[in-house]
Design brief:
There is one protein chain. This protein has three domains: 79 residues, Arc Repressor Mutant, subunit A, CATH 1.10.10.10; 107 residues, Periplasmic binding protein-like II (D-Maltodextrin-Binding Protein, domain 2), CATH 3.40.190; 104 residues, D-Maltodextrin-Binding Protein, domain 2 (3-Layer(aba) Sandwich), CATH 3.40.190. Helices cover 43% and strands 22% of the residues. It is built from eleven helices and eleven strands. The strands form three sheets. Strands 3, 4, 5, 6, 9, 10 and 11 form a seven-stranded mixed β-sheet that branches. Strands 1-2 form a two-stranded antiparallel ribbon. Strand 1 and strand 2 form a beta hairpin. The chain is globular. The protein starts with a helix and ends in a 7-residue tail after the last helix. 29% of the residues are buried.
Amino acid sequence: MNYTLHQLHIFTKVCEYGSITRASEALYLTQPAVSIQLKKLQDEFEIPLTEVIGRKLYVTKFGKQILELALEVLEKVAFLEASIDQYKGVLSGHIKIAVASTGKYVIPYFLTDFMRKNPRVTISVDVTNKTKVIERLKENTIDFALISVIPPNLALECVSLIKNELHLVSSFNYPDLPKKMNAKKMENYTLIVREEGSATRAAMETFLNKNQIKINRSMHLVSNEAVKQAVRAGLGLSIMPLIGIGNELDLKKMKIIPMKGLPIITQWNLAYGRGKKLSLASLALVKYIEENKNEISKLHFPKRVIK
């Protein structure tokens, strides 16, 4: 057997993306380079690792076994390299974090100083909706997830960061708004909502159902930024996280509408699977956040006075 760690790494990426093209993009390699290394790895085995049906690439049953072993080998190699660096007094490694979309306003501030102090540690942050973040936690394809709602069916360790407040908001000059909204009045307005799978959408629906609010007209958008722009433009009202609209409130582009039962308050958490064997870099990040989260919160997320 003459396969290399580089070939195993390429194989795991091809399996992850289900595509040589997408794997080559993720690896910053040309498509032919990935294909050549994948063929060289395949030549070491008499049984196919992958097969192409139509134009779609599939991993064979044998390939899935090799994938599992390859991931174990690469994990141990990464741990070995990190241990050597640690012996030299240097922290190194790669950390993968999946972030529920609104969390993009939160996570950078908890990483900045850590990365400055540990230049050999690289961190990739994938911003998506809550459903996909939870899927990646279940599949154990990430080190951490930043989520505001803890799924009850997963055993997780959580590091609490900051509160997540959701308020009813409109454009600053939205016409004919009552000074204080109630359930009956809210039914008269267009509600701008996030896509299915969003934690913000789920929190909004829970609030509407609890208060027996029937929305007669709505607009569905696929990102927090898209919702914010629609609200700013006066297309309707929305229930949005305060963390993402601070500038709009300060610039008088949007305003908070007081309403009984609001704000909805959840908690941003950095979560990982209970029993997961964290790398040295991941352990160092958890320790750093635990020790510095209060200071980071006070500096970057001061409590806003809502009038």
